[in-house]
UniProtKB/TrEMBL annotation:
PROSITE patterns: GLYCOSYL_HYDROL_F4. Substrate binds at residues 95, 149, 287. This is Glycoside hydrolase, family 4. The record marks 111 as: Increases basicity of active site Tyr. It holds the Pfam family Glyco_hydro_4. It comes from Coprobacillus cateniformis.
Length: 444
Protein backbone atom coordinates (compact mmCIF):
# COMPACT_ATOMS: atom_id res chain seq x y z
CA UNK A 1 0.00 0.00 0.00
CA UNK A 2 1.27 3.45 -0.83
CA UNK A 3 2.28 5.49 2.20
CA UNK A 4 -0.25 8.17 3.16
CA UNK A 5 1.02 11.69 2.81
CA UNK A 6 -0.72 14.62 4.47
CA UNK A 7 -1.89 18.02 3.36
CA UNK A 8 -1.44 20.79 5.93
CA UNK A 9 -2.83 24.30 6.07
CA UNK A 10 -1.20 26.77 8.43
CA UNK A 11 -3.79 29.39 9.39
CA UNK A 12 -2.12 32.61 10.42
CA UNK A 13 0.42 32.10 7.62
CA UNK A 14 1.86 35.54 8.39
CA UNK A 15 2.73 34.54 11.97
CA UNK A 16 6.29 34.89 13.16
CA UNK A 17 6.06 31.21 14.14
CA UNK A 18 5.19 30.01 10.62
CA UNK A 19 8.71 29.56 9.14
CA UNK A 20 9.87 27.64 12.24
CA UNK A 21 6.87 25.33 12.11
CA UNK A 22 7.25 24.82 8.38
CA UNK A 23 10.89 23.75 8.79
CA UNK A 24 9.98 21.54 11.70
CA UNK A 25 7.38 19.76 9.57
CA UNK A 26 10.04 19.10 6.94
CA UNK A 27 12.41 17.77 9.59
CA UNK A 28 9.86 15.15 10.67
CA UNK A 29 8.76 13.92 7.25
CA UNK A 30 10.08 10.41 8.00
CA UNK A 31 7.31 9.91 10.56
CA UNK A 32 4.79 12.44 9.26
CA UNK A 33 5.03 12.54 5.45
CA UNK A 34 3.67 15.65 3.77
CA UNK A 35 2.43 16.17 0.22
CA UNK A 36 1.22 19.75 0.49
CA UNK A 37 1.64 22.82 2.70
CA UNK A 38 -0.59 25.85 2.31
CA UNK A 39 -0.59 29.12 4.22
CA UNK A 40 -3.78 31.03 4.91
CA UNK A 41 -4.07 34.52 6.42
CA UNK A 42 -6.46 37.45 6.11
CA UNK A 43 -3.57 39.93 5.84
CA UNK A 44 -2.23 39.51 2.30
CA UNK A 45 0.96 41.57 2.44
CA UNK A 46 2.13 40.29 5.81
CA UNK A 47 1.65 36.68 4.78
CA UNK A 48 3.32 37.27 1.40
CA UNK A 49 6.69 38.15 2.95
CA UNK A 50 6.71 35.05 5.14
CA UNK A 51 5.33 32.82 2.36
CA UNK A 52 7.68 33.95 -0.41
CA UNK A 53 10.68 33.24 1.82
CA UNK A 54 9.27 29.83 2.81
CA UNK A 55 8.57 29.07 -0.84
CA UNK A 56 12.25 29.63 -1.67
CA UNK A 57 13.30 27.45 1.25
CA UNK A 58 10.92 24.66 0.25
CA UNK A 59 12.01 24.72 -3.40
CA UNK A 60 15.61 24.29 -2.27
CA UNK A 61 15.00 21.71 0.43
CA UNK A 62 11.79 19.79 -0.29
CA UNK A 63 10.78 20.33 -3.92
CA UNK A 64 8.45 17.32 -3.75
CA UNK A 65 6.14 19.17 -1.33
CA UNK A 66 3.50 21.23 -3.12
CA UNK A 67 3.35 24.75 -1.67
CA UNK A 68 0.87 27.58 -1.88
CA UNK A 69 -0.38 30.61 0.01
CA UNK A 70 -3.67 32.40 -0.24
CA UNK A 71 -6.23 34.64 1.43
CA UNK A 72 -9.06 32.73 -0.25
CA UNK A 73 -10.74 30.33 2.20
CA UNK A 74 -11.92 27.84 -0.41
CA UNK A 75 -8.41 27.42 -1.85
CA UNK A 76 -6.86 27.29 1.62
CA UNK A 77 -9.17 24.71 3.17
CA UNK A 78 -9.96 22.34 0.29
CA UNK A 79 -8.18 18.96 0.31
CA UNK A 80 -6.69 19.40 3.77
CA UNK A 81 -5.96 16.78 6.46
CA UNK A 82 -4.74 19.08 9.24
CA UNK A 83 -5.17 22.77 9.97
CA UNK A 84 -2.59 24.24 12.32
CA UNK A 85 -4.10 27.42 13.64
CA UNK A 86 -2.06 30.23 15.19
CA UNK A 87 -3.79 33.51 14.51
CA UNK A 88 -3.50 36.77 16.43
CA UNK A 89 -6.58 38.85 15.74
CA UNK A 90 -5.53 42.50 15.93
CA UNK A 91 -1.81 41.70 15.67
CA UNK A 92 0.80 42.99 18.13
CA UNK A 93 -0.63 46.50 17.98
CA UNK A 94 -3.70 45.23 19.86
CA UNK A 95 -1.63 43.07 22.20
CA UNK A 96 0.12 46.28 23.21
CA UNK A 97 -3.25 47.78 24.18
CA UNK A 98 -4.25 44.60 26.06
CA UNK A 99 -1.14 45.07 28.17
CA UNK A 100 -1.04 48.85 28.54
CA UNK A 101 -4.70 49.71 29.25
CA UNK A 102 -4.94 47.66 32.49
CA UNK A 103 -1.54 48.96 33.64
CA UNK A 104 -2.91 52.53 33.52
CA UNK A 105 -5.25 51.47 36.33
CA UNK A 106 -2.54 49.64 38.28
CA UNK A 107 -3.77 46.23 37.08
CA UNK A 108 -1.64 43.46 35.52
CA UNK A 109 -1.35 43.87 31.75
CA UNK A 110 -0.81 40.46 30.16
CA UNK A 111 -1.91 38.96 26.86
CA UNK A 112 -3.76 35.97 28.33
CA UNK A 113 -4.29 36.71 32.05
CA UNK A 114 -6.61 39.32 33.53
CA UNK A 115 -8.35 42.08 31.54
CA UNK A 116 -5.84 41.91 28.66
CA UNK A 117 -6.56 38.22 28.16
CA UNK A 118 -10.31 38.81 28.31
CA UNK A 119 -10.04 41.53 25.68
CA UNK A 120 -7.91 39.30 23.47
CA UNK A 121 -10.46 36.50 23.96
CA UNK A 122 -13.24 38.72 22.68
CA UNK A 123 -11.16 39.26 19.51
CA UNK A 124 -10.02 35.65 19.01
CA UNK A 125 -13.35 33.81 19.30
CA UNK A 126 -14.72 35.00 15.96
CA UNK A 127 -11.45 34.44 14.10
CA UNK A 128 -10.97 30.86 15.27
CA UNK A 129 -14.63 29.90 14.76
CA UNK A 130 -14.49 31.32 11.22
CA UNK A 131 -11.46 29.17 10.35
CA UNK A 132 -13.09 26.10 11.92
CA UNK A 133 -16.16 26.67 9.77
CA UNK A 134 -14.07 27.01 6.60
CA UNK A 135 -12.29 23.76 7.44
CA UNK A 136 -15.55 21.90 8.05
CA UNK A 137 -17.08 23.26 4.86
CA UNK A 138 -14.23 22.42 2.52
CA UNK A 139 -12.53 19.46 4.30
CA UNK A 140 -15.05 17.89 6.68
CA UNK A 141 -12.67 15.10 7.74
CA UNK A 142 -9.81 17.38 8.70
CA UNK A 143 -8.55 18.04 12.24
CA UNK A 144 -7.73 21.47 13.54
CA UNK A 145 -4.87 21.81 16.00
CA UNK A 146 -5.40 25.16 17.65
CA UNK A 147 -2.78 26.97 19.66
CA UNK A 148 -4.10 30.49 19.15
CA UNK A 149 -4.40 32.34 22.44
CA UNK A 150 -6.07 32.95 24.80
CA UNK A 151 -6.57 29.20 24.57
CA UNK A 152 -8.86 28.91 27.62
CA UNK A 153 -11.44 31.31 26.19
CA UNK A 154 -11.10 30.04 22.62
CA UNK A 155 -11.60 26.47 23.87
CA UNK A 156 -14.71 27.40 25.87
CA UNK A 157 -16.10 29.19 22.80
CA UNK A 158 -15.57 26.14 20.59
CA UNK A 159 -17.22 23.93 23.26
CA UNK A 160 -20.25 26.24 23.36
CA UNK A 161 -20.55 27.03 19.66
CA UNK A 162 -19.07 24.02 17.82
CA UNK A 163 -19.24 21.11 20.29
CA UNK A 164 -18.88 18.39 17.64
CA UNK A 165 -16.01 19.91 15.70
CA UNK A 166 -12.72 18.11 15.20
CA UNK A 167 -10.57 20.60 17.05
CA UNK A 168 -7.89 20.01 19.67
CA UNK A 169 -6.80 22.98 21.78
CA UNK A 170 -3.27 22.77 23.11
CA UNK A 171 -0.71 25.07 24.77
CA UNK A 172 3.07 25.01 24.66
CA UNK A 173 3.78 26.35 28.17
CA UNK A 174 3.35 23.08 30.10
CA UNK A 175 5.56 21.42 27.49
CA UNK A 176 8.29 23.99 27.94
CA UNK A 177 8.07 23.63 31.73
CA UNK A 178 8.19 19.83 31.51
CA UNK A 179 11.35 20.15 29.41
CA UNK A 180 12.78 22.35 32.14
CA UNK A 181 11.85 19.90 34.89
CA UNK A 182 13.35 16.98 32.96
CA UNK A 183 16.57 18.91 32.42
CA UNK A 184 16.74 19.97 36.11
CA UNK A 185 17.00 16.36 37.18
CA UNK A 186 19.31 15.26 34.40
CA UNK A 187 16.82 13.62 32.03
CA UNK A 188 17.21 14.23 28.34
CA UNK A 189 13.57 14.82 27.45
CA UNK A 190 10.14 15.55 28.89
CA UNK A 191 9.07 12.32 27.21
CA UNK A 192 10.73 10.48 30.08
CA UNK A 193 8.15 12.02 32.46
CA UNK A 194 4.75 10.55 33.19
CA UNK A 195 2.71 13.44 34.56
CA UNK A 196 -0.49 14.09 36.45
CA UNK A 197 -1.79 17.65 35.90
CA UNK A 198 -5.04 19.56 36.35
CA UNK A 199 -6.17 23.11 35.82
CA UNK A 200 -7.44 25.54 33.24
CA UNK A 201 -5.18 26.81 30.47
CA UNK A 202 -2.43 29.06 31.90
CA UNK A 203 -3.84 28.13 35.31
CA UNK A 204 -2.74 24.62 36.35
CA UNK A 205 -0.63 22.40 38.58
CA UNK A 206 1.38 19.18 38.34
CA UNK A 207 0.34 16.88 41.17
CA UNK A 208 2.38 13.86 40.15
CA UNK A 209 5.52 13.31 38.09
CA UNK A 210 6.99 9.83 37.71
CA UNK A 211 9.54 8.24 35.46
CA UNK A 212 8.50 5.56 33.00
CA UNK A 213 9.15 2.88 35.66
CA UNK A 214 6.78 4.52 38.11
CA UNK A 215 9.44 6.08 40.37
CA UNK A 216 8.34 9.33 42.01
CA UNK A 217 10.32 12.30 40.63
CA UNK A 218 8.41 14.99 42.53
CA UNK A 219 10.75 15.20 45.57
CA UNK A 220 13.81 15.90 43.45
CA UNK A 221 12.03 18.38 41.15
CA UNK A 222 10.48 20.15 44.15
CA UNK A 223 13.92 20.80 45.63
CA UNK A 224 14.87 22.73 42.50
CA UNK A 225 11.56 24.60 42.24
CA UNK A 226 11.64 25.51 45.95
CA UNK A 227 15.13 26.98 45.54
CA UNK A 228 14.97 28.65 42.11
CA UNK A 229 11.62 28.10 40.42
CA UNK A 230 12.23 26.83 36.91
CA UNK A 231 15.41 28.87 36.54
CA UNK A 232 17.73 25.91 37.26
CA UNK A 233 17.04 24.40 33.90
CA UNK A 234 17.90 25.35 30.38
CA UNK A 235 15.40 23.80 28.02
CA UNK A 236 16.44 22.91 24.50
CA UNK A 237 13.98 25.47 23.19
CA UNK A 238 15.11 29.02 22.57
CA UNK A 239 11.68 30.63 22.74
CA UNK A 240 11.75 32.10 26.23
CA UNK A 241 15.07 33.82 26.64
CA UNK A 242 14.20 37.48 27.21
CA UNK A 243 14.70 38.99 30.68
CA UNK A 244 10.96 39.08 31.38
CA UNK A 245 10.79 35.29 30.91
CA UNK A 246 13.83 34.67 33.10
CA UNK A 247 12.08 36.60 35.90
CA UNK A 248 8.90 34.56 35.32
CA UNK A 249 10.82 31.29 35.68
CA UNK A 250 12.43 32.46 38.93
CA UNK A 251 9.19 33.81 40.38
CA UNK A 252 7.67 30.31 40.15
CA UNK A 253 9.53 29.68 43.41
CA UNK A 254 7.15 32.03 45.28
CA UNK A 255 4.11 30.55 43.53
CA UNK A 256 5.27 27.08 44.56
CA UNK A 257 5.63 28.21 48.19
CA UNK A 258 1.84 28.62 48.41
CA UNK A 259 1.24 24.93 47.84
CA UNK A 260 4.34 22.75 48.17
CA UNK A 261 2.29 19.64 47.31
CA UNK A 262 2.05 20.66 43.67
CA UNK A 263 4.20 22.37 41.03
CA UNK A 264 2.56 25.40 39.46
CA UNK A 265 2.31 26.70 35.91
CA UNK A 266 4.27 29.96 35.67
CA UNK A 267 1.19 31.98 34.64
CA UNK A 268 -0.20 31.67 38.18
CA UNK A 269 2.16 34.46 39.25
CA UNK A 270 -0.18 36.95 37.55
CA UNK A 271 -3.05 35.85 39.80
CA UNK A 272 -1.17 35.21 43.03
CA UNK A 273 1.39 38.05 42.95
CA UNK A 274 -0.31 40.74 40.86
CA UNK A 275 1.13 43.54 43.03
CA UNK A 276 4.67 42.27 42.37
CA UNK A 277 3.95 41.98 38.64
CA UNK A 278 2.61 45.54 38.39
CA UNK A 279 5.58 46.92 40.34
CA UNK A 280 7.91 45.16 37.91
CA UNK A 281 6.06 46.28 34.75
CA UNK A 282 6.95 49.30 32.66
CA UNK A 283 3.59 50.76 31.60
CA UNK A 284 5.29 52.32 28.56
CA UNK A 285 7.18 49.22 27.43
CA UNK A 286 5.58 45.80 27.70
CA UNK A 287 6.08 42.31 26.21
CA UNK A 288 4.31 43.36 23.03
CA UNK A 289 7.04 45.98 22.53
CA UNK A 290 9.77 43.43 23.25
CA UNK A 291 8.34 41.04 20.66
CA UNK A 292 7.79 43.76 18.04
CA UNK A 293 11.34 45.06 18.55
CA UNK A 294 13.01 41.65 18.48
CA UNK A 295 11.17 38.56 17.30
CA UNK A 296 8.85 40.17 14.76
CA UNK A 297 11.54 42.46 13.35
CA UNK A 298 14.09 39.62 13.10
CA UNK A 299 11.75 37.20 11.32
CA UNK A 300 10.60 39.77 8.77
CA UNK A 301 14.20 40.92 8.14
CA UNK A 302 15.30 37.31 7.58
CA UNK A 303 12.40 36.70 5.20
CA UNK A 304 13.09 39.87 3.22
CA UNK A 305 16.79 38.92 2.91
CA UNK A 306 15.88 35.50 1.56
CA UNK A 307 13.49 37.08 -0.95
CA UNK A 308 16.06 39.70 -2.04
CA UNK A 309 18.80 37.11 -2.53
CA UNK A 310 16.48 34.52 -4.06
CA UNK A 311 17.97 31.80 -1.87
CA UNK A 312 17.65 30.53 1.70
CA UNK A 313 21.02 28.80 1.50
CA UNK A 314 22.80 31.42 3.64
CA UNK A 315 20.64 30.36 6.55
CA UNK A 316 18.46 32.45 8.80
CA UNK A 317 15.57 30.04 9.15
CA UNK A 318 15.58 27.54 11.98
CA UNK A 319 13.16 24.75 12.81
CA UNK A 320 11.09 25.65 15.86
CA UNK A 321 12.10 22.85 18.24
CA UNK A 322 9.62 24.07 20.84
CA UNK A 323 6.77 23.27 18.45
CA UNK A 324 7.66 19.59 18.04
CA UNK A 325 4.59 18.71 20.09
CA UNK A 326 2.43 19.89 17.19
CA UNK A 327 3.99 17.27 14.93
CA UNK A 328 3.62 14.69 17.71
CA UNK A 329 -0.04 15.59 18.03
CA UNK A 330 -0.71 15.38 14.27
CA UNK A 331 1.14 12.04 14.22
CA UNK A 332 -0.97 10.73 17.09
CA UNK A 333 -4.17 11.57 15.19
CA UNK A 334 -2.85 10.27 11.88
CA UNK A 335 -1.15 7.09 13.01
CA UNK A 336 -2.84 6.26 16.32
CA UNK A 337 0.26 6.57 18.53
CA UNK A 338 -1.86 6.96 21.71
CA UNK A 339 0.74 9.39 23.03
CA UNK A 340 -0.21 11.39 26.13
CA UNK A 341 -0.66 15.18 25.80
CA UNK A 342 -1.99 17.90 28.03
CA UNK A 343 -5.07 19.09 26.14
CA UNK A 344 -7.78 21.61 26.93
CA UNK A 345 -10.98 19.53 26.89
CA UNK A 346 -14.46 19.45 28.49
CA UNK A 347 -14.03 18.14 32.03
CA UNK A 348 -16.88 15.59 32.09
CA UNK A 349 -15.76 14.36 35.51
CA UNK A 350 -12.03 13.93 34.87
CA UNK A 351 -11.49 16.45 37.68
CA UNK A 352 -14.02 14.86 39.98
CA UNK A 353 -15.08 17.76 42.21
CA UNK A 354 -15.21 20.42 39.49
CA UNK A 355 -17.74 21.78 36.97
CA UNK A 356 -18.36 19.05 34.35
CA UNK A 357 -18.74 21.67 31.61
CA UNK A 358 -15.46 23.46 32.33
CA UNK A 359 -12.70 23.32 29.71
CA UNK A 360 -9.88 21.85 31.79
CA UNK A 361 -6.25 21.21 30.92
CA UNK A 362 -5.51 17.56 31.72
CA UNK A 363 -3.53 14.64 30.28
CA UNK A 364 -5.24 12.81 27.41
CA UNK A 365 -4.26 9.90 25.20
CA UNK A 366 -4.55 10.83 21.52
CA UNK A 367 -5.22 8.40 18.69
CA UNK A 368 -7.00 8.12 15.38
CA UNK A 369 -10.43 8.78 16.91
CA UNK A 370 -9.39 11.80 18.95
CA UNK A 371 -8.63 11.99 22.68
CA UNK A 372 -9.40 9.98 25.81
CA UNK A 373 -9.16 11.80 29.13
CA UNK A 374 -6.99 10.53 31.96
CA UNK A 375 -9.00 10.92 35.19
CA UNK A 376 -7.22 13.19 37.69
CA UNK A 377 -9.53 12.64 40.68
CA UNK A 378 -10.50 15.23 43.27
CA UNK A 379 -8.49 18.44 43.64
CA UNK A 380 -7.66 20.36 46.84
CA UNK A 381 -9.76 23.30 48.10
CA UNK A 382 -7.14 25.94 47.24
CA UNK A 383 -6.96 25.00 43.57
CA UNK A 384 -10.70 24.35 43.37
CA UNK A 385 -11.48 27.81 44.73
CA UNK A 386 -9.12 29.54 42.32
CA UNK A 387 -10.32 27.50 39.35
CA UNK A 388 -14.00 28.08 40.08
CA UNK A 389 -13.49 31.82 40.04
CA UNK A 390 -11.35 31.75 36.89
CA UNK A 391 -13.58 29.35 34.92
CA UNK A 392 -16.53 31.61 35.68
CA UNK A 393 -14.60 34.56 34.27
CA UNK A 394 -13.88 32.61 31.08
CA UNK A 395 -17.47 31.39 30.71
CA UNK A 396 -18.81 34.92 31.23
CA UNK A 397 -16.57 36.28 28.46
CA UNK A 398 -17.87 33.68 26.03
CA UNK A 399 -21.45 34.45 27.08
CA UNK A 400 -20.77 38.17 26.65
CA UNK A 401 -19.48 37.50 23.12
CA UNK A 402 -22.44 35.28 22.16
CA UNK A 403 -25.11 37.55 23.65
CA UNK A 404 -23.39 40.90 23.01
CA UNK A 405 -23.79 41.56 26.73
CA UNK A 406 -22.02 44.51 28.37
CA UNK A 407 -23.29 43.32 31.75
CA UNK A 408 -21.63 39.90 31.45
CA UNK A 409 -18.36 41.39 30.25
CA UNK A 410 -18.39 43.76 33.22
CA UNK A 411 -19.09 40.80 35.51
CA UNK A 412 -16.21 38.87 33.91
CA UNK A 413 -13.78 41.78 34.43
CA UNK A 414 -14.99 42.26 38.01
CA UNK A 415 -14.70 38.57 38.86
CA UNK A 416 -11.14 38.36 37.54
CA UNK A 417 -8.95 37.85 40.60
CA UNK A 418 -6.52 40.45 39.29
CA UNK A 419 -9.07 43.31 39.17
CA UNK A 420 -9.61 45.09 42.53
CA UNK A 421 -13.19 46.39 42.14
CA UNK A 422 -16.24 46.71 39.91
CA UNK A 423 -15.33 50.38 39.47
CA UNK A 424 -11.86 49.62 38.08
CA UNK A 425 -13.35 46.78 36.01
CA UNK A 426 -15.75 49.26 34.40
CA UNK A 427 -13.03 51.82 33.70
CA UNK A 428 -10.86 49.21 32.00
CA UNK A 429 -13.81 47.71 30.14
CA UNK A 430 -14.97 51.04 28.77
CA UNK A 431 -11.50 51.82 27.50
CA UNK A 432 -11.16 48.31 26.05
CA UNK A 433 -14.46 48.66 24.19
CA UNK A 434 -13.23 51.85 22.52
CA UNK A 435 -9.85 50.27 21.64
CA UNK A 436 -11.46 47.10 20.26
CA UNK A 437 -14.31 48.63 18.29
CA UNK A 438 -13.05 47.08 15.03
CA UNK A 439 -12.91 43.59 16.56
CA UNK A 440 -15.48 42.98 19.33
CA UNK A 441 -19.17 42.41 18.81
CA UNK A 442 -21.18 45.42 19.92
CA UNK A 443 -21.97 45.14 23.65
CA UNK A 444 -25.34 46.38 24.88
P1 LIG B 1 1.54 37.16 14.67
O1 LIG B 1 0.84 38.45 14.83
O2 LIG B 1 2.97 37.14 14.29
O3 LIG B 1 0.77 36.30 13.56
C1 LIG B 1 -0.58 36.05 13.59
C2 LIG B 1 -1.12 36.05 12.17
O4 LIG B 1 -2.52 35.77 12.24
C3 LIG B 1 -0.98 37.38 11.43
O5 LIG B 1 -0.31 37.21 10.21
C4 LIG B 1 -2.40 37.84 11.24
O6 LIG B 1 -2.61 38.56 10.05
C5 LIG B 1 -3.16 36.53 11.23
N1 LIG B 1 -4.58 36.64 11.52
C6 LIG B 1 -5.18 37.41 12.44
N2 LIG B 1 -6.50 37.24 12.40
C7 LIG B 1 -6.76 36.32 11.44
C8 LIG B 1 -7.94 35.73 10.91
N3 LIG B 1 -9.13 36.03 11.42
N4 LIG B 1 -7.82 34.85 9.91
C9 LIG B 1 -6.61 34.54 9.39
N5 LIG B 1 -5.45 35.05 9.86
C10 LIG B 1 -5.53 35.94 10.85
O7 LIG B 1 1.30 36.38 16.01
P2 LIG B 1 2.16 35.26 16.74
O8 LIG B 1 2.97 35.89 17.77
O9 LIG B 1 2.80 34.41 15.75
O10 LIG B 1 1.04 34.46 17.49
C11 LIG B 1 0.04 33.73 16.84
C12 LIG B 1 -0.82 33.01 17.84
O11 LIG B 1 -0.13 31.91 18.40
C13 LIG B 1 -1.23 33.88 19.02
O12 LIG B 1 -2.56 33.59 19.37
C14 LIG B 1 -0.28 33.49 20.10
O13 LIG B 1 -0.77 33.78 21.37
C15 LIG B 1 -0.14 32.02 19.85
N6 LIG B 1 1.09 31.44 20.38
C16 LIG B 1 1.22 30.13 20.30
C17 LIG B 1 2.37 29.53 20.75
C18 LIG B 1 2.51 28.10 20.63
O14 LIG B 1 1.98 27.35 21.42
N7 LIG B 1 3.23 27.69 19.64
C19 LIG B 1 3.41 30.28 21.29
C20 LIG B 1 3.26 31.61 21.35
C21 LIG B 1 2.11 32.18 20.85
C1 LIG C 1 2.66 34.10 25.81
O1 LIG C 1 3.00 35.13 26.43
O2 LIG C 1 1.95 33.25 26.30
C2 LIG C 1 3.12 33.83 24.40
O3 LIG C 1 2.47 34.65 23.51
C3 LIG C 1 4.57 33.79 24.18
C4 LIG C 1 5.28 35.08 23.86
O4 LIG C 1 6.31 35.00 23.15
O5 LIG C 1 4.89 36.15 24.30
Amino acid sequence: MEEKKYSITIAGGGSTFTPGICLLLLEHMDRFPIRKIQFYDNFKERQETIAKACEIYLKENAPEVEFGYTTDPETAFTDVDFVMCHIRVGLYAMREKDEKIPLKYGVVGQETCGPGGLAYGMRSIGGVIEILDYMEKYSPNAWMLNYSNPAAIVAEATRRLRPDSKILNICDMPIDLEEKMASMIGLSSRKELDVGYYGLNHFGWWHSIKDQNGNDLMPEIKKHVAANGFADALSKTNQHVEQSWIETFSKAKDVYALDPDTIPNTYLKYYLYPDYVVEHSDPNHTRANEVMEHREKNIFTICQNIIDKGTAKDGGFEPDAHAEYIVDLACALATNTKEKFLLIVPNEGAVENFDRTAMVEIPCYVGINGYERVVQGAIPQFQKGLMEQQVSVEKLVVEAWIEGSYQKMWQAMTLSKIVPSAKVAKQILDEMIEANKDFWPELK
